[in-house]
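A reminder from the course coordinator: this example appears on the midterm review sheet, so study it carefully.

Given structure:
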């Protein structure tokens, strides 16, 4: 299978790694050569780390890298069996990307978005590939996390869902299925919990350390909610909360003021070196 991954950030590189190590010819695409190179370098670093830890042989690393191709030309999606986007969470940007891919890809190509919360139906609307469009939502870090959410849009065919689930299992991942709904399953539950933890901090109820320790020991979570927010990216947490609020108009999804303040201050978590903790 030939896979075309659009977006060379952390998620895009991770998804490309999953497919390349899974035996699939994989193209990583972005708009600028430096973005593609950065994503490729990240992927190489991760594979070398797997080799150093004895989890992959040098031969497997070499074979995986040989299956990986870099591109800044969207036309390279032409022969793909699957295109999956992992660009930033903006509906218009995603619709424009898929509109261009719609004219380039073969009729039986599977179209997928790795969106964490946006509408699959809206993204696919008007495309020739609409019935073959669905959400395939990996979790970060994609090579490590076993779960993949498969999201059914209003016009997604059963054949597309079956093909996606077979592929996910072949990658040694576990699929869960859901109808389109804001935030799908995991983020619908997880992100409001993180938001509540942020609000506890904002109200001065407890320190970040005690909030996280309480959830680690009291709820058996491997990572506290504020530490997890730093790992996910505080801007992404805010974006998902705003999507949930906008889609449902339910005030329980109103983002904490502290969440907004931190994003405005550029304190986005691990990726900026400062969030609820310093890195």
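Designed residues:
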């Amino acid at each position: 299978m030939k896979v075309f991954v659009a977006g060379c950030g952390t998620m895009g590189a991770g998804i490309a790694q999953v497919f390349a190590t899974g035996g699939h010819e994989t193209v990583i695409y972005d708009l600028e050569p430096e973005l593609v190179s950065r994503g490729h370098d990240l992927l190489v670093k991760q594979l070398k780390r797997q080799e150093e830890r004895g989890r992959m042989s040098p031969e497997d690393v070499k074979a995986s890298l040989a299956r990986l191709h870099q591109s800044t030309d969207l036309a390279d999606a032409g022969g793909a069996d699957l295109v999956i986007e992992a660009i930033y969470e903006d509906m218009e940007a995603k619709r424009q990307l898929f509109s261009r891919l719609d004219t380039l890809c073969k009729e039986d190509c599977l179209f997928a978005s790795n969106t964490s919360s946006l509408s699959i139906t809206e993204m696919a609307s008007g495309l020739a590939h609409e019935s073959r469009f669905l959400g395939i939502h990996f979790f970060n870090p994609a090579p490590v996390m076993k779960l993949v959410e498969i999201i059914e849009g209003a016009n997604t065919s059963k054949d597309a869902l079956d093909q996606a689930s077979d592929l996910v299992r072949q990658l040694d991942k576990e699929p869960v299925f859901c109808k389109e709904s804001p935030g799908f399953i995991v983020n619908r539950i997880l992100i409001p919990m993180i938001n509540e933890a942020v609000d506890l901090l904002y109200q001065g109820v407890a320190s970040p350390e005690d909030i996280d320790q309480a959830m680690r020991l009291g709820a058996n979570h491997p990572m506290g909610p504020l530490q997890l927010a730093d790992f996910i990216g505080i801007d992404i947490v805010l974006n998902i909360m705003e999507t949930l609020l906008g889609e449902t108009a339910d005030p329980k999804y109103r983002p904490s003021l502290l969440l907004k303040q931190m994003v405005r201050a550029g304190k986005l978590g691990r990726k900026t070196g400062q969030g609820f903790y310093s890195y």
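The chain is about 45% helix and 15% strand. The mean pLDDT is 97.
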